[in-house]
Amino acid sequence: MTSEWKPRSFAKQVIAYYHEKGRKDLPWHNTKDPYRIWLSEIMLQQTQVKTVIPYYQKFLKAFPNVLDLANAELDEVLHLWSGLGYYSRARNLHKAAQMVRDEHQGEFPQSQAELESLPGVGRSTAGAIAAFAFDKPAAILDGNVKRVLARCFAIEGWYGQTKVLNKLWDLSEKLTSKNETAAFNQAMMDLGAVVCKRNKPLCSECPLAQKCQALQQDRIAELPHRKPKKARPSKSVYWLIYLDKGQILLQKRPPSGIWGGLWSLPEIEIEAKVQKQYSSERQLDAILHKFSHYDLHIYPLLMQKKPNISIMEPSSQQWYSLAEPLSVGLPTPVSNLLEQLKQNLD
User: Do residue 34 and residue 135 come from a single domain?
Assistant: First the structure.
């Protein structure tokens, strides 16, 4: 059995990989600007690089610095985020920018603790900002790094469990180079994204292969252990489409929860009593939208009667012109449905 890596030799191999093959040409590379680094780290949470790039560029064009973002309206931020998913990230991004403006005089804090105090910034994101922007010897542990460490050291268990996560953090802290920390961290993320992939990893190209415990034990496909499977819950709703002279009635969703703060169609959860009440309305094609933790079955209804908007808060509803759309945040399935309705009217 091959022995485990020692921290110094592990770091040496990882940093050498960065200088030889590491990614250095992504839009958020080659900068020490904490705003740009923070923005990229938030967008990259649970989202692939190729998806993030156009959103990152669009955001920088609209909000070149943290003060521009802090002073923007939340609706504008959500509008630019529409389609990227996990909308709590956008709300936290806006709150964090305002905290930097109001509590840190417009300058990003440099300490790990202060960075973690910003909404939406956890331990790993704070470490990335500290290392990439301020050259601090801070460890990171994103999904890619977890996979590299779990395989290299044959870590048992799903890393959503506290015990397993703590073990991975201990490893990351111990192995992270105190010199060239930014290069080390970038290389670890690159290894997980490009080489030590979840499916079909390129072990022959990995600088850590010679002492990778999962490879030696023929457990690459098994590690890291996946989350234990549960029955996937689902929910069914009606979306009520009130169409009047090319305009659609939209409602603003509550600030927290699914699609929090975005504009959507009036929604009613389906049950037997409700089904009977809306049985005469024209139903359009059903929509299935998959969230990370449940499935949403949507049944759009083209309503014949006019809405009772008198009981709604004025700030929570508005008529949306299909011909001249507003710059507001829309969930992807709502945006797609509105585009379909527009085409049908043209």
Answer: yes
